[in-house]
Design goal:
The strands form two sheets. Strands 1-2-10-7-12-5-4-3 form an eight-stranded mixed beta sheet. A four-stranded antiparallel beta sheet has the order 6-11-8-9, with no helix packed on it. It has ten helices and twelve strands. Helix 4 crosses helix 7 and helix 5 crosses helix 7. Helix content is 29%, strand content 17%.
Length: 370
């Protein structure tokens, strides 16, 4: 099959191709995608090839740049201005599920150093090999593609994953090359997350600390993605289409871009970088507890010839941290006209299902619908 302007992909896999062997060989280097780039590859390994049915819309985007809405949090503590912000977010969530925030209070120095810290870990540090792991219970680890062995196509990215709450043992758990900035950034994420969750509670007519009291902020995960420049971006992808698994995501991205959202399930729209802004998106468990009042929107990241692209996602989730706490639709939002649409689930059980599916497949929430 040929794609306009792209390398040609063989229509049939040669009988001699041993996919599992190639995956294991890649995995055992513990160097990730950057290891391939450092080795000088000009043709990407076959396990990165997208299936032919996914190639048609691989780099599609809306011809009209709508632009993801920007919400200015300036003076969010002032009553009149706060009401305006709540109204603005309500309108944004009805149409997008994604928005950017500015004037969130995080110094630009912190944002820039966070990007540089991720770059240092991936480019200057031999710590990567020591932290490389596929253990789902390991709190801090480096890997390439959590679903490497079950995905139809691997994504062109490497990841440093740090579960910094709950029960964080301290800075010594983190890589030395980015330890200090991760700790500082994590503190800022807690504060901004608290502000966003309070505003979302008010959008629903609930008390400001409702989501906090529910436990939606009990944990947060810093997931740092490093997307090296790709020699054949037309036939692979940076991150497959997916929705996020937790309650809420705050994303910092560098100036390169590549993130796209599936707007109203119809068209891919670019989330253009804005210096100093954070991208906010609703995740699956928040859609579940709001009984579809908020929607977790599908998004993806394109592979590109330019790079590396660096992004840091803060997921408010406890991941697979052992807990029997059940989350279900908020009773205050239910009525005869709006009965519960989901059954209760623990965050651990939801994540197990999410990880088992991998990216790019069936929406994980469907499994929990009543």
């Amino acid at each position: 099959m040929a794609v306009a302007g792209a390398a040609e992909i063989p229509s049939e896999i040669p009988p001699s191709y041993d996919r599992l062997r190639e995956l294991k060989s890649f995995d055992e280097t513990k160097l990730g995608v950057k290891g391939l780039v450092d080795a000088g590859v000009t043709n990407i390994p076959r396990f990165f090839f997208l299936p032919s049915e996914d190639l048609r819309n691989n780099h599609a985007s809306s011809p009209v740049q709508k632009g993801i809405p920007i919400v200015d949090l300036d003076r969010v503590g002032q009553e009149d201005r706060r009401k305006e912000i709540v109204k603005e977010i309500r309108g944004v969530l009805e149409t997008w599920g994604f928005f950017k925030v500015i004037n969130h209070g995080i110094p630009q120095r912190v944002l820039d150093e966070m990007i540089q810290g991720v770059r240092r870990f991936n480019e200057e540090s031999e710590e990567k090999v020591a932290f490389y792991s596929r253990d789902p219970d390991k709190r801090v680890k480096f890997y390439s593609n959590f679903d490497l062995y079950q995905a139809k196509a691997a994504n062109w990215r490497d990841t440093l994953s740090c579960l910094v709450a709950p029960d964080f043992k301290g800075p010594e758990e983190l890589p030395e090359t980015c330890r200090d900035i991760f700790m500082e950034y994590s503190d800022h994420m807690k504060r901004v997350g608290d502000t966003i969750f309070a505003l979302l509670s008010e959008v629903l007519g609930l008390r400001p600390n409702y989501f906090d009291d529910m436990g939606c902020m009990d944990g947060h995960l810093l997931l740092s993605h490093y997307y090296p420049a790709c020699p054949e971006p037309e036939i692979t992808i940076g991150t497959s289409k997916h929705s996020d698994s937790g309650f809420l995501t705050l994303l910092l991205q560098d100036e390169i871009g590549g993130l796209q959202v599936l707007h109203q399930d119809r068209e891919w729209v670019d989330v253009l970088p804005v210096r100093g802004a954070l991208v906010v998106n609703i995740a699956d468990l928040l859609q579940l507890v709001t009984n579809d009042k908020f929607k977790s929107v599908v998004h993806r990241v394109k592979a590109q010839k330019v790079g590396p692209r660096i992004s840091i996602a803060c997921f408010f989730t406890t991941q697979t941290y052992p807990s029997n706490k059940l989350f279900g639709p908020i009773k205050e939002l239910l009525s005869e006209e709006n009965p519960p649409k989901y059954r209760e689930v623990t965050t651990g059980d939801y994540l197990m299902h999410y990880f088992a599916l991998g990216l790019g497949g069936e929406p994980p929430l469907n499994h929990f619908r009543i």
